[in-house]
Design brief:
The complex is a heterodimer of chains A (415) and B (261). Chain A has 415 residues and is α/β, with parallel strands linked by helices. Chain A folds into two domains: 235 residues, Mur-like, catalytic domain (UDP-N-acetylmuramoyl-L-alanine:D-glutamate ligase, 3-Layer(aba) Sandwich), CATH 3.40.1190; 120 residues, Mur ligase, C-terminal domain (Protein-Tyrosine Phosphatase, Chain A). Chain B has one domain: Rossmann fold, CATH 3.40.50. The chains are: A alpha/beta (415), B alpha/beta (261). The interface between A and B is medium-sized, with 29 and 35 residues.
Chain lengths: 415, 261
């Protein structure tokens, strides 16, 4: 939608984008969520500023968990008013333009941002908060972690004065990159993947890690004291902030859920939303894009996790170990290097444990798990893989195509 | 464990990740099966450089090569290699140890000169690679990946590391016939094949371990059924998808050359 207050060029850009998006949908080429925004940006590079307008935006970025935390943030801030979000996962500038131009009235925005697009999106939306989850290397694009961190550092230094960076202080790379932000709030929930953070990004020294903190012997940087901290609370989790403890129930398995919840509460607080109310909204999120709701299979319940890099697999392994749930690994073909990065995941943490494997890349998964000393069983399909374990809840760790296939199959039965 | 080896992964954060860091743990596993205790170290700044028996340098993309050359130059890598330490240089790592390489803008730079190759620009190729068996190195057909826009020219008569059944390799014309890939010069193994190359191909891990321990006799037979099956399936898939290859190209080079007359 255009708005009469938009500059002429932005209106023209949005009209072009809208018709292209409709055309793309009509031709069955896709959801139209990118092409419209892409053309609008071609006509007017400033169009993001026009569609963002005066809304109060929260950006969510990081390597892993962006979609999930964006959904939790969107829920947490609803007490503050109507929220627009790029729920399709189109998280580059064009996708964000499309999402914001489709809803010009909501006063709040929760936007998932690809880590490499943070600078243009921050410039265009002038956010009230930027949530930064974690940082590890991506294998699918030609950008080094170092250049992403430098990009973040530049972006942080140019954030508006009334913007807070809500960062994972357990991640030394994220902590360093956002040192230059005008305001920084720390969230602590643990770091599963230290492989990319062993070396201080500031001085190149090898960092000292303890179970829950880090420090650099070279430049004396250390983990900033967190403002929001995830703590065990009975059989579940709570978030501690300013001497107050807020219980949080999230369906997302393992620590991922409460950690995402802590970021969402911090974001809500930054917009002036009451934290208790925000926690209720976060706890009401049952599912994100079919990812977390458990699927019933007789006496079993299967929870799906979708993983795309060693850090993601490390987190899935951590969920299985820390919640003492059995694991199924489901991997399907997805290009030549579909299983290559799994060789770097710490499957040895499951050595001696039984893991069931299924999918089109079973042979690769068996080789990887066997090398890690895991007791591997092969299953012809997902149901038998889940049933290879004792009745109860089972974690199903999938690569992208296996996740699409299995969630569709599971949903097919109930919807 | 009769013998202890140190494997050092050099400056993994300087370049774009290519999923080749599993090579170090592959050497640990294969070493254990060969009764060698293998210790791994990651070196990420010049002053933490260690004396090791095997050095791994890898990653992809040309953006980080200059930084890699700079970091490697201020270490004793050249001395260690001339003393016989094994160096496995993958993709961006191969650029860095070449005599010269080209940056993304096309400008030519000096490399470390540890491998007798020069690197030139070429059209981009990506895909899965299958090597031909090589009796001289005791290697069966291996699997790997290539993704680069480079031509790797060997000099001083240095031999290639592999010949390929499927894949583009060095993209230089070789008189022997067959597509060559990488370079093998003394204790330096250079290749474009990134990803968990040694994990997927334990016989190549054996080759690295043999060179690091100065072993000349062949290793005893050692099966790794799970990895072999994964490789067999992957090779079969590549052959199905690349109709260019015929049965002759699967034979070792000398045999194939004789058949061609």
């Amino acid at each position: 939608m255009s708005d009469a207050r938009d500059p002429l060029r932005a209106r023209l850009a949005l009209a072009t984008g809208r018709s292209a998006g409709r055309l793309s949908q009509a031709l069955g080429k896709g959801s139209g969520s990118m092409i419209g925004g892409r053309l609008a940006l071609r006509v007017d590079p400033q169009v993001l500023r026009a569609v963002a307008g005066e809304r109060r935006s929260i950006l969510v970025t990081g390597t892993n968990g962006k979609s999930t935390v964006t959904a939790l943030v969107a829920a947490a801030i609803t007490p503050g008013g109507a929220v627009v979000s790029n729920t399709t996962g189109a998280n580059m500038t064009d996708g964000i333009v499309t999402a914001l131009s489709a809803d010009r009235t909501s006063g709040l925005a929760a936007l998932e941002v690809d880590e490499v697009y943070l600078e243009p999106v921050a410039r265009g939306t002038r956010p009230k908060a930027v949530v930064v989850l974690n940082s590890s290397r991506e294998y699918t694009r030609g950008v080094s972690l170092k250049s992403t961190l430098e990009h973040w550092r530049r972006t942080a230094a140019a954030l508006p004065d009334d913007c807070v960076a809500i960062v994972n202080v357990d991640d030394p790379l994220v902590s360093w990159a956002f040192e230059t932000a005008p305001h920084r709030i720390g969230v602590s929930g643990g770091l599963y993947w230290r492989g990319d953070a062993l070396i201080c990004p500031a001085c190149g020294s090898v960092q000292d890690f303890t179970d829950d903190s880090w420090s650099c012997p070279g430049c004396r940087r250390s983990r900033p004291e967190p403002d929001w901290k995830v703590v065990p609370d009975g059989d579940g989790w709570a978030v501690e902030h300013a001497g107050q403890r807020t219980r949080i129930e999230v369906t997302v398995p393992g620590r991922t859920g409460p950690v995402g919840g802590a970021f969402a509460l911090a974001a809500a607080d930054a917009l002036g939303v009451d934290v208790t109310e925000a926690a209720e909204r976060v706890s009401a999120v049952a599912d994100v894009d079919g990812r977390y709701a458990p699927y019933r299979l007789g006496d079993h319940a299967a929870r799906l996790l979708m993983l795309k890099n060693p850090a993601g697999w490390a987190e899935a392994i951590d969920v299985a170990v820390s919640t003492d749930r059995p694991l199924v690994v489901a991997v399907d073909p997805f290009g030549p290097k579909d299983t290559a990065t799994m060789w770097e995941a710490p499957f040895q943490r499951l050595a001696g444990e039984r893991v069931a494997v299924t999918g089109g890349r079973t042979a690769d998964a068996v080789a990887i798990l066997d090398a890690a000393g895991v007791d591997v069983v092969e299953a012809p399909d997902i149901e038998s893989a889940v049933r290879a374990h004792a009745p109860g809840e089972v974690m199903v760790a999938c690569n992208y195509p296996a996740f699409r296939r299995i969630s569709k199959q599971f949903r097919g039965g109930t919807h | 464990m009769s013998k202890a080896l140190t494997v050092a992964t050099l400056f993994p954060l300087a370049t774009v990740a290519a999923a080749d860091e599993a090579n170090a743990s592959a050497l640990v596993r294969r070493g254990a099966a060969r009764e060698l205790s293998v210790e791994t170290v990651t070196v990420d700044r010049p002053d933490s450089f260690v004396e090791a028996d095997v050095y791994l340098v890898g990653g992809t993309g040309r953006g980080g090569v200059a930084a890699l050359v700079e970091a490697l130059t201020s270490t004793d890598l050249a001395v260690r290699v001339s003393d016989g330490a094994v160096l496995l240089a993958v993709d961006a790592g191969l650029d860095a140890i070449a005599r010269s390489w080209v940056d993304p803008a096309g400008a030519r730079h000096q490399g470390l000169g540890l491998a007798p190759v020069t690197i030139h620009s070429a059209p981009e190729v990506t895909g899965t690679v299958v090597t031909r068996p090589d009796a001289s190195l005791d290697l069966p057909a291996l699997i790997g990946w290539e993704a680069n826009d480079l031509r790797t020219v060997r000099e001083d008569g240095a031999r290639a590391l592999f010949t390929l059944e499927v894949g583009s390799g060095n993209r230089t014309d070789d008189a022997v016939g067959g597509t060559t890939e990488g370079v093998l010069a003394g204790s330096v193994l250079g290749t474009r094949l990134h990803g968990p190359l040694l994990a997927l191909n334990p016989e190549l891990a054996d080759l690295v371990l043999a060179r690091a321990t100065h072993r000349s006799e062949p290793w005893p037979e050692l099966e790794s059924p799970a990895v072999e099956r994964a490789r067999r399936e992957r090779i079969a898939e590549v052959r199905r998808e690349s109709p260019k290859t015929d049965w002759r190209s699967r034979l070792p080079v000398p045999v194939a050359a004789r058949l061609r007359g």
